[in-house]
Design a protein that fits this description.
The complex is a heterodimer. By secondary structure, chain A is α/β, with parallel strands linked by helices. Chain A folds into two domains: 178 residues, Periplasmic binding protein-like II (D-Maltodextrin-Binding Protein, domain 2); 179 residues, 3-Layer(aba) Sandwich (D-Maltodextrin-Binding Protein, domain 2). In chain A, helix 14 crosses helix 21 and helix 20 runs antiparallel to helix 21. The radius of gyration of chain A is 22 Å and the shape is globular. Chain A starts with a helix and ends with a helix. Chain B is flat and about 75 Å long. Chain B has one domain: MetI-like fold (Orthogonal Bundle). Chain B starts with a helix and ends with a helix. The chains are: A alpha/beta, B mainly alpha. Chain B: Keywords: Cell membrane, Membrane, Transmembrane, Transmembrane helix, Transport. Chain B: Pfam families: BPD_transp_1. Chain B: One of its GO terms (cellular component) is plasma membrane. Chain B: This is Glucose/mannose transport system permease protein.
């Protein structure tokens, strides 16, 4: 039903685009109007919930910091931005970019960079002091051929396992401590199964299964080889990858039968209701648990087994489109996005953590405080499922392979598809 | 000369906007799509592109994912058409025999058509939950409550291509059977009662009456039903998108694959898929159009 609504919006957007391009000439005539040129259109897929609240926080900071400019909301609703990306692609192809648009930081920006649609913002990093405020490892992750193309507004962690202490107790397992390795985790799942828990791991379709695969690969290969998988430096066809995928297959066999039919909030409910022991999901779960009023004692969380010390990240960021309207306004928006006040206003509401390492920890709720400590201390590794390590095209191929694997469980077919997907295109 | 313009001029003037709009928005855009499908525009970069002939088509037909989506579409179409025709005809027959409160039944059968595919897709996504046994939900739960446990199955998430795509066809059958019923019912009502009486006087049994008198009269309707269902099945996108999500290999059909390809800005490949889809629809529709044109000119 939400999909239907957002589809309508996308269609209206596309129709509007036609109308705009049809009267392109008259637009040019109006650009002399000074008040219109001060508009800063900000394109996002944050249309409701905590995301919208976070955006509103940014907007109010923008209102005080950038008095010369007017914020114009250009949000397109739809999960993970699938509709928004389509509308944005149309806008960019028609040469009508917004002043700034949202994109996952990292490889997902690669398409826009390759297409010449976004500008280098490295100078702004120096100007705003972001090169000192962001951890060096994040800056390294964002840098493409010596240039940086976006300013991250937040950071999410992907390699987190959320557990139900009550269910773990059935098999006399310690909920506060993660199993030391993937093998130990599999052993725990066997114990849970023996104790009568039918599906120890709750997971859901598409990117959630991809996240499970990613944490297994990360644990088995280590951070450097894992990162290399997505940029061609590690051989995706290697025997160590095969071994890791075999373990992933084993883990998936411990999961719920309806995984292809549900979304991640449903999988989380299996854990909350005591039907499953674990679910692998990003730390937006913390915001969901707060919103659902699940008491802190009802769940615990730890880095996925074997991945402690690694912070698998994804980040929402803003860009400076090539030939965008109101570039000064867009720069002011980017300044707000990177600033301590802006990141606080945004992240306390969205449930993510600031990318800056100088943020005040006590401003944030319990889970985020722990994540912020890890963000400072851990090795930062990109996530493929959320665009930090993979382009949209690569991720589309991987998701298709995941669906095929979930029913056939053929490691050979999966690995072949992953090799094809990982090839830089 | 002047007089001739008087005869055809006004008519042409009335038709002109339609012809222009159709020419641009339908045939012009088809030509544009076809042209794009012959280029190497595999990204959104605003640079000049080269014509590469039929390379995109050759690549498509060498790709496992595309062939899989075509096979899925074939199975889906067969399951959808057969299922809808059977239920539509069955309901029409039952109503034609006469039941009290026919109006109510008609509305009940027709009602699903009023629901948009995307909305019914969301609901059917829940109903087709593959969990079985104690965890069963959706339809499987209903079966277990009714002690029909042998009917529980994993729906589209496991098993052969046939069981997968038949599960996907199920909601579409539910949605359109009522429409086909309405078509057939109108057909039955359009047959003059004298024909039935004559057949009965000649001593035809009820079975023979339907077999030799009534059904032959319905064949034009059956043909239109086939065409309508066929082209709807080929275009089916929202239902699959809502039930299984956009990236499900098991249920992907060309229209969904085209959406995914467009999302990764591979314009040329997406255009090629669109043209293949158009060709498949044309194979179905053109003979029908030819047939109806011939029928009309004979009359």
């Amino acid at each position: 039903m939400r999909g239907g609504w957002s589809k309508t919006v996308a269609v209206l957007g596309a129709a509007g685009l036609l109308a705009v391009s049809a009267c392109g000439n008259s637009d040019d005539g109006g650009s002399g109007d000074s008040s219109a040129s001060k508009d800063v259109t900000v394109f996002t897929w944050w249309a409701d919930g905590g995301e919208k609240a976070g955006l509103d926080g940014l907007v109010s900071t923008f209102g005080t910091e950038c008095k010369d400019f007017k914020f114009v909301n250009s949000a397109v609703a739809g999960g993970a931005g699938s509709n928004a990306k389509q509308v944005l692609a149309n806008d960019l192809a028609a040469g009508k970019p917004p002043a700034t648009f949202q994109a996952h930081a990292g490889a997902e920006l690669g398409d826009y960079i390759k297409n010449g649609q976004v500008d280098d913002v490295s100078d702004l990093y120096k100007e705003f002091g972001l090169d000192k405020a962001f951890p060096q490892s994040l800056i390294d992750n964002l840098t493409v051929d010596g240039k940086i193309y976006s300013v991250p507004a937040n950071v999410h962690r992907a390699n987190v396992v959320w557990t139900s202490p009550a269910v773990l107790k059935k098999a006399n397992l310690d909920a506060t401590k993660a199993p030391a390795s993937v093998d130990a985790w599999i052993a725990d799942m066997e114990k849970l199964k023996a104790a009568g828990v039918k599906a120890p791991l709750a997971t859901s379709k598409g990117f959630a299964e991809e996240m499970v695969m990613e944490v297994v690969l990360l644990a088995e290969l280590g951070p450097d080889k894992f990162t290399g998988l997505w940029n061609g430096q590690t051989d995706m066809a290697g025997a160590d990858v095969t071994a890791a995928l075999e373990k992933f297959k084993k883990i998936l066999s411990f999961s719920n039968a309806d995984r292809e039919a549900i979304d991640w909030p449903d999988a989380l409910q299996y854990v909350n209701k005591g039907q499953a022991a674990y679910t692998v999901m990003g730390d937006w779960v913390a915001a969901q648990q707060l919103a659902d009023k699940v008491p802190d004692s009802a769940y615990t969380y730890w880095p996925a087994p074997g991945t402690a010390g690694n912070f698998q990240y994804l980040a929402d960021s803003f860009t400076l489109p090539t030939n965008g309207q109101t570039p000064e306004g867009a720069k002011c928006w980017l300044k707000v996005v990177g600033s301590a006040e802006g990141q606080k206003a945004f992240n306390t509401k969205k449930g993510s953590i600031p990318a800056r390492s100088d943020a005040v920890v006590t401003d944030y709720p319990k889970y985020q405080q722990a994540a912020m400590a890890d963000w400072k201390a851990n090795k930062i590794v990109p996530s493929c499922a959320h665009g930090a390590a993979c382009t949209l095209g690569q991720n589309d191929s991987i998701l298709s392979a995941m669906g095929q694997f979930s029913s056939g469980m053929d490691v050979g077919v999966l690995q072949k598809a992953l090799v094809a997907a990982a090839k830089p295109n | 000369m002047h007089g001739r313009i008087r005869t055809w001029g006004p008519g042409a003037l009335v038709l002109l906007p339609t012809v222009l709009l159709l020419g641009y928005f339908v045939y012009g855009l088809i030509a544009w799509t076809f042209n794009t499908s012959l280029t190497d525009k595999h990204n959104a970069r605003p640079v000049p592109t080269n014509h590469v002939g039929f390379e995109n088509y050759v690549n498509l037909f060498g790709e496992e994912r595309f062939l899989n989506s075509l096979k899925n579409l074939g199975v889906l179409t067969v399951a959808f058409i057969v299922g809808t025709l059977i239920f539509g005809l069955l309901w029409a027959l039952l109503l034609e025999k006469g039941v009290p409160g026919e109006g109510i039944f008609r509305s009940v059968f027709l009602f699903p058509m009023a629901v948009s595919m995307i909305a019914s897709g969301v609901v059917w996504g829940w109903l087709l939950n593959p969990s079985q046994g104690d965890d069963a939900r959706g339809l499987n739960r209903l079966f277990s409550i009714l002690h029909l446990n042998f009917l529980e199955n994993p729906w589209w998430t496991a098993g052969s291509r046939w069981t997968t795509m038949a599960s996907i066809a199920l909601p579409a059958v539910w949605q359109l059977s009522g429409y086909i019923m309405a078509l057939f019912l109108a057909g039955f009502r359009g047959i003059p009662p004298e024909l039935r009486e004559a057949a009965r006087v000649d001593g035809a049994s009820e079975f023979k009456l339907y077999r030799y008198v009534l059904f032959p009269q319905l064949s034009p309707i059956a043909l239109s039903a086939l065409i309508i269902l066929g082209h709807m099945s080929l275009k089916l996108f929202d239902l699959i998108y809502a039930i299984t999500g956009p990236n499900q290999f098991r249920t992907e059909v060309p229209s969904v694959y085209m959406w995914n390809t467009l999302l990764r800005s591979d314009m040329a490949k997406a255009a090629a898929i669109a043209i293949v889809l158009l060709a498949v629809v044309a194979v179905l529709v053109i003979p029908y159009v030819a047939y109806t044109v011939r029928q009309e000119s004979e009359e």
